[in-house]
Specification:
There is one protein chain. By secondary structure, the chain is an all-alpha fold. It is built from four helices and no strands. The longest helix has 27 residues. The relative contact order is 0.05. The mean pLDDT is 76.
Length: 85
Amino acid sequence: MKGRRLWVIAVLAFMTNGASLLGIGQGSAGSVARAIECSHNIAHNIQTAKALGMLVGNPPLKPRAEYFGPFVVDCSALNMCSVLA
């Protein structure tokens, strides 16, 4: 790398990390990325808390089954077909 390319890379490196190199960490690219990630996490946690808050006091509904269990009753073996029908 000679001349112009070196200066272009140096300027770009200083633009992205110059604030942190000067001691002003709030303006560096890493701090901006951390701030975006933090605000995303906060928004996600607020959304989760609101969704869980809506479930408080409302138990999940039980599915209504038309049968009492997974068993099949053979009424002819029990001699109770008239009672079970």
